[in-house]
Amino acid sequence: MQAERKFRTAAATWALIAAASFALLVSGCGKKPENESAPPEVTVATPETQSVTDYLEFTGNTVATDSVSLVARVEGYLDKIHFIDGATVKKGALLFTIQQAQYIAQLQQAKSQVEAQKAALWHATTELARYTRLLKQDAATQTEVDHWHYEKDTADANLKSAEAQVVIADLNLDYTSVTAPFDGRMGRHLVDPGNLVGSPGKTTVLAEINRIDPMYVYFTISERDLLRIIAINHGRNASRVTAQQIPAYFGLLNESGYPREGRLDFASISVAPTTGTLQLRAIFPNKELDVLPGLFVRVRVPAQEKRDALLVPGDAVSFDQQGEYVLVVDSKNIVERRTVKTGAQVGDRLVIEEGLKPDDKVIVEGLLQAIPGHEVNPQQASAATGSTPDAAAH
Q: 360 and 323 in one domain?
């Protein structure tokens, strides 16, 4: 009886221990770690307000401001070439020489004719004066006086003709030296020395020369965009487009941004009916002569005056099937998807045209941990985050 009582007491004790252990086990399994319940940490920043300029962007091509085909203006054998193909030359530099001997002789012959006609004029003038005196003394007839008057006038006309031949001969001699009409870059020579050039009825092109400083850039613009530029920059005065007052910028395909600055200097007088566009031309300095004609370039023209805009780091803007958006944190630290409309890029930031307010908290770091509708732990970004150069810098 006593042994049975001890057995029951021991069994009851073990049952209590087992129940307590099970309760502790269940309690331990149901408790979550403290770090799992904490919301993820993200970095937020309010949009920066900055004065920016809107731009219109185009694709254009470079064209030399002047391009001339150098031709032989007199007939003769090409004697010498005085430049290296592709060289940069100054205005007036000697480029080609055509054989000069015959033109030197022709000039000397023309000058000799001038001297002969001067002598003939002197003789006719002297005889006219003599016979005029004799006529008054009844020692000559009027016919003789008229004859020497005719001889004098003929000699005078012949002298003027001879002097004109001297000018022509001098020009022909001058044409044997082909010089650069302006500062520019030479193409390759198209005729070798020893060839006959300048034959009558045949144009002989010797080479081409281009002026590439400054350089033209041609591009097309829609009528709507052109009127927008005119209206904002010059009070809707279309004639100001050619007043060389609207700035323009361009960059080569291997350049970052639009580092080259110039100005608009020409707009076509009519819209192309087939495309509905206008052709514009900008002029840019090219002191280093590193921009060649025929290159495709990116052109940017300011569309309006500066205005205040909201900017956010470019990495904060995402894109999906619904369009562009950013993630913002509301007053309860809940992530919200906000659809936005972006504008121009300013450095590494984007202008936000629609969808944000100045006091919105935009998530700029930790986007992968931010899920719309879930709570996050926002941390304010440092002042240096997202800093970029001024928007007006080019």
A: yes
Q: Angle at the Cα of 93 (from 89 to 96), degrees rounded to 5?
A: 105
Q: What is the pLDDT of residues 255-265, one digit of tens each?
A: 888 999 999 88
Question: What is the phi-psi region of residue 194: left when phi exceeds 0, alpha when psi lies from -120 to 50, beta otherwise?
Answer: left
pLDDT above 90 for 270: no
3-state SS assignment for residue 62: strand
Q: How far apart are CA 147 and CA 126, in angstroms?
A: 13
Query: In this predicted model, what pLDDT tens digit does every residue of 80-113 receive, in sequence order?
Result: 999 999 999 999 999 999 999 999 999 999 999 9
Q: Verify that 318 and 275 share a domain, yes or no.
A: no
Alpha-helical runs (H) found in 137-211: 142-175
- What is the chain's percent helix, strand, coil content, to nearest 5? 30, 35, 35
**Could you tell me the pTM of the whole model?**
0.65
Helices (H) and strands (E) in the chain, counts: 5, 22
Q: Exposed, middle or buried, 175 (CB in 10 Å: 0-12/13-18/19+)?
A: middle
Residue pair 184/49 in contact by the 8 Å Cβ criterion:
no
| CB neighbours of residue 173 within 10 Å | 18
Q: Are 194 and 224 contained in the same domain?
A: no
Tell whether 198 and 93 lie within a shared domain.
yes
DSSP state of 245: -
Phi, psi of 212 (to 5 degrees): -115, 10
Tokens representing 28 are: 């331990």
